[in-house]
Specification:
The structure is a single chain. With 255 residues, this protein is an alpha/beta fold. It has helices at 9-13, 17-20, 25-35, 65-68, 109-119, 131-134, 138-143, 145-154, 158-165, 198-202, 205-208, 212-227, 230-235; strands at 40-44, 57-61, 78-79, 95-99, 124-129, 168-173, 176-177, 243-244, 248-254. It is built from 13 helices and 9 strands. The strands form 2 sheets. Strands 3-2-1-4-5-9-6 form a 7-stranded mixed sheet, sandwiched between helices. It has a two-stranded antiparallel ribbon with strand order 7-8. The longest helix is centred in the C-terminal third of the chain and has 16 residues, at 212-227. Mean pLDDT is 93; it is low at 1-6.
């Protein structure tokens, strides 16, 4: 309706998110290391609270009621706000973080990233994705090019992020472990069967944002190729790997 803001995306696609997108302790350690000695942290697009520090002051920013309802009781209460207008003063926290959320900031990505830098005196830590790398993964390359195309539009490049942030930026590739409990779409690299699991699909924004006809097409093709051995003939070597670079990137920026 004219004059009415659309509901946050995760009010539509975030149901059941906490059950399949559980925190990976190895990734948590990397994020905490990137935050360094920061004692106060703003987490933008905080979702269910995964990867937030539990021994520091946290300000959680999350616009979706569906996601905030899934935050554990011990987590910081969430402030309903948007990345492009953080309700914080300049230099008011030691660090800022955003975990796989900035691609949902749509046309406000640059403003949101600059807001992170505005409010933090210390590091800005972003967990994001390199769409050129993720697009080469079998799922996108062989079955779901629509997500690869979407990711190239919605994920800022590392160069864009560095330019928006200024200062000094380091980028680290984060291989996705086979046994990660955080079932991002990138975790499907080792588990083609997850394409056939509705709960697994629906907890990834890639599948959740696709038309039902596309999802049905991909499911049918993967089911067929698993049944007749085509998938294993093409990609079976992946089953012997412990981890794989599916495009996950950890960016740390300092002034």
């Amino acid at each position: 309706m004219t004059g009415t803001a659309a509901p946050p995306r995760y009010d539509r696609i975030g149901h059941g998110y906490a059950s399949t997108r559980r925190e990976d302790p190895r990734l948590r350690e990397r994020i905490l290391a990137a935050l360094g000695g920061a004692r106060s942290v703003v987490n933008v697009g905080a979702g269910t609270g995964s990867y937030e520090p539990r021994d520091r002051e946290v300000i959680a920013i999350e616009p979706s009621r569906v996601m905030t309802a899934q935050r554990p009781p011990a987590a910081a209460p969430a402030v309903r706000a948007m990345a492009q207008g953080l309700p914080l003063a300049d230099d008011s926290v030691d660090a800022a973080m955003a975990v796989l959320s900035l691609h949902h900031w749509d046309e406000h990505q640059e403003q949101g990233v600059r807001e992170l830098r505005r409010v933090a005196t210390g590091p800005v830590v972003l967990l994001t994705c390199d769409p050129e790398v993720s697009g080469a993964m079998w799922l996108m390359a062989d079955y779901l090019p629509e997500v690869a195309d979407l990711d190239r539009v919605t994920f800022p490049t590392m160069e864009q992020l560095a330019a928006w942030l200024g200062g000094r930026t380091q980028v680290e590739a984060i291989p996705v472990p086979r046994d990660t409990p955080d079932w991002t779409l990138m975790s499907f690299w080792a588990h083609p069967e997850r394409v056939l699991d509705a709960a697994a699909r629906q907890a990834t924004s890639g599948f959740a944002r696709m038309p039902s006809a596309v999802v049905e097409r991909v499911m049918a093709a993967v089911r067929r190729d698993l049944a007749d051995g085509t998938w294993d003939a093409r990609h079976g070597a992946l089953r012997r790997l412990d981890a794989y670079d599916a495009g996950l990137r950890l960016l740390r920026n300092t002034l």
